[in-house]
């Protein structure tokens, strides 16, 4: 009896502090943000219950939808930029020679660099006066291409997508390499005996065989688009004129720049809902395709 | 669900290394071309970082006058100036304090909980595990506002704790799954022997389980280090006090790019980046696999 009591005490001590910290700092905030979303609150003074007004206002705000569209641009840039590059690289880099390991390490390197630093480096690359990009264009006689990459609303979403792609290819590369190596060699030998050519081999064997991994990668691209906050915040802050606003910068600016805590909480809740819908929706879509 | 974490400890890419069949689809005569493309691609990826380090030794005139040249004289004193004038020294210290504290907390609680969930049975075990999984699907930035409001009410905003606790909270599920998966693969014999020897649960945990789990804990240590050291969003929202600012937060002051001291800024950026790159160069394989395993769950 005392023994099982000791076991129970050990289990309690092993679980409760972890559950406490986890619940207080991860789970409770989600419930609270849904709740605070019902209030008009400036952070100080009294808060006023206003029902669904904050949610309705966000959904009726064109800037909110532009931010949503910008998030989708990042998702598209990841899916159609990162995944094909990573897939092609993974086919070439499956072996483990010294050279291949070097390339793999190089591609992965930006992952360990703080996104603030990546944002600042790309800020210098795009800088209208001192930027390396415009400097290069000038040198190569492409002066007409020179522009304010981060300031021009017609192109700046694509400009900020480039570092997102550049920095995040590494994990997809490693993921695909691992998946390709799990394809059994009999499948491949059979394909070869049947005389499958290279391109066919890729489309008909590799892609279907690692389809599950590709699905995971697409979900990662979707959830990763929300993490682009740091990079965009450093490079443009969501500007100019909210042209590069993302859902996360929209939430940040409304809460901490104009101090609308209730509204910011409502937007936070919408971000969670949107990302859940996108992730689940993409999985349903891909299941049907299969 | 615990099987996810085991990815970090499988042999991974190495396990089928040297299997010749897979290299066939690319004929040898194209090999040099694909290698050339690969080399260019790798250099394209590395160049921005190389540019950063080279720029950090230049003068301001050289920075925008000759962006691609090597520094004419290597100004090591840029680093000294960044450390002192730009206040990078205290920020570095803050980053060390916050990162290490969060890692210790994550490792201790994560390993303890992983031991409990992988070896013991209790009511609501399924529920507890699904809670940890659910948390990993939450976009981290959507918790900024409610966390800010909550910590403001607790009065821990603008303290080290306002970073350490949320860092640990978000990393704990990863730690539990990775260490838990590792422990599941380890035979129970040693623990049982230790229990029979009368070590008790705590003695067994500290003397047998924790030492056994060191490889998995090392993965969590490295991933946690990179994540906490590089974090910007939490520090931006929860820290206001100049004296408590971490490295990424201090750097963001320079991000505007107009009218700043470029040699100072690039030196400060290099100081922030060097520790993570050194860690990366030492633990590459572990980091690659660990990050993939961690992000697959996130």
Description:
The complex is a heterodimer of chains A (290) and B (298). With 290 residues, chain A is an all-alpha fold. Helix content of chain A is 74%, strand content 1%. Chain A is built from 13 helices and 2 strands. Chain A has a two-stranded antiparallel sheet with strand order 1-2. In chain A, helix 5 (115-126) crosses helix 7 (156-181) and helix 10 packs antiparallel against helix 13. The mean pLDDT of chain A is 87. The radius of gyration of chain B is 23 Å and the shape is globular. Chain B is mainly α and 298 residues long. Classes of the chains: A mainly alpha (290), B mainly alpha (298). The interface between A and B is large, with 106 and 103 residues.
Helix-strand makeup class of chain B: mainly alpha
CATH class of the largest domain in chain A: Mainly Alpha
Largest sheet of chain B: none
The multimeric state of the shown protein is heterodimer
| Spatial strand order of the main sheet of chain A | 1-2
Instruction: Give the proportion of residues in helices of chain B.
Output: 55-70%
Protein name (chain A): Sugar ABC transporter permease
InterPro entries (chain A): MetI-like, MetI-like_sf, UgpAE/MalFG_permease
Membrane topology (chain A): Multi-pass membrane protein
Main location (chain A): membrane
Summarize the structure.
The complex is a heterodimer of chains A (about 290) and B (about 300). By secondary structure, chain A is mainly α.
């Amino acid at each position: 009896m005392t023994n099982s009591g000791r076991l129970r005490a050990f289990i309690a001590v092993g679980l409760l502090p972890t559950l406490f910290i986890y619940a207080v700092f991860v789970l409770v905030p989600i419930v609270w943000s849904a709740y605070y979303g019902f209030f008009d609150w400036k952070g100080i003074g009294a808060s006023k219950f206003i029902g669904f007004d904050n949610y309705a206002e966000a959904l009726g705000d064109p800037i909110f939808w532009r931010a949503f569209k910008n998030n989708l641009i990042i998702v598209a840039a990841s899916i159609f930029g990162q995944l094909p590059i990573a897939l092609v690289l993974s086919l070439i880099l499956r072996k483990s020679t010294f050279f291949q390991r070097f390339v793999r390490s190089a591609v992965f390197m930006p992952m360990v660099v703080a996104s603030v630093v990546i944002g600042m480096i790309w800020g210098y690359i795009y800088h209208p006066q001192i930027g390396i990009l415009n400097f290069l264009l000038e040198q190569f006689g492409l002066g007409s291409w020179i522009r304010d990459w981060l300031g021009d609303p017609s192109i700046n979403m694509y400009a900020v997508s480039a570092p997102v792609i550049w920095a995040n290819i590494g994990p997809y590369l490693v993921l695909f390499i691992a998946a390709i190596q799990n394809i059994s060699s009999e499948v491949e030998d059979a394909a070869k005996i049947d005389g499958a050519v290279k391109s066919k081999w890729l489309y008909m064997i590799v892609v279907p065989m690692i389809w599950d991994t590709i699905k995971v990668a697409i979900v990662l691209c979707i959830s990763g688009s929300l993490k682009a906050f740091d990079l965009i915040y450093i490079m443009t802050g969501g500007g100019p004129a909210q042209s590069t606003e993302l859902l996360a910068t929209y939430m940040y600016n409304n809460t901490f720049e104009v101090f609308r805590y209730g509204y910011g909480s409502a937007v936070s809740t919408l971000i969670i809902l949107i990302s859940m819908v996108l992730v689940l929706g993409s999985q349903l879509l891909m299941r049907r395709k299969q | 669900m615990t099987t996810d974490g085991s990815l970090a400890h499988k042999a991974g890419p190495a396990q089928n290394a040297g299997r010749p069949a897979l290299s066939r689809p690319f004929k040898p005569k194209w090999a040099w071309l694909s290698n050339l493309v690969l080399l260019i691609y790798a250099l394209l990826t590395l160049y921005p970082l190389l540019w950063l380090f080279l720029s950090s030794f230049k003068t301001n005139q050289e920075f925008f006058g000759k962006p691609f040249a090597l520094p004419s004289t290597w100004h090591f004193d840029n680093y000294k100036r960044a450390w002192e004038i730009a206040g990078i020294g205290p920020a570095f210290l803050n980053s060390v304090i916050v990162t290490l504290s969060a890692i210790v907390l994550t490792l201790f609680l994560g390993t303890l909980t992983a031991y409990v969930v992988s070896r013991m049975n209790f009511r609501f075990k399924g529920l507890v595990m699904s809670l940890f999984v659910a948390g990993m699907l939450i976009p981290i930035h959507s918790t900024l506002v409610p966390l800010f409001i909550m910590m403001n009410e607790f009065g821990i905003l603008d303290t080290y704790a306002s970073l350490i606790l949320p860092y640990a909270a978000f990393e704990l599920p990863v730690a539990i799954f990775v260490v838990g998966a590792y422990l599941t693969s380890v035979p129970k014999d040693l623990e049982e022997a230790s229990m029979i020897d009368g070590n008790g649960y705590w003695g067994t945990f500290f003397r047998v389980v924790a030492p056994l789990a060191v490889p998995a804990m090392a993965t969590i240590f490295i991933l946690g280090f990179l994540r906490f050291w590089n974090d910007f969003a939490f520090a931006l929202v929860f820290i206001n006090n100049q004296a408590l600012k971490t490295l990424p937060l201090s750097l963001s002051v320079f991000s505007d790019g107009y009218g700043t001291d470029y040699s100072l800024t690039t030196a400060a950026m290099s100081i922030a980046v060097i520790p993570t790159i050194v860690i990366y160069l030492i633990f590459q394989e572990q980091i690659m696999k660990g990050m993939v395993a961690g992000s697959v769950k996130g």
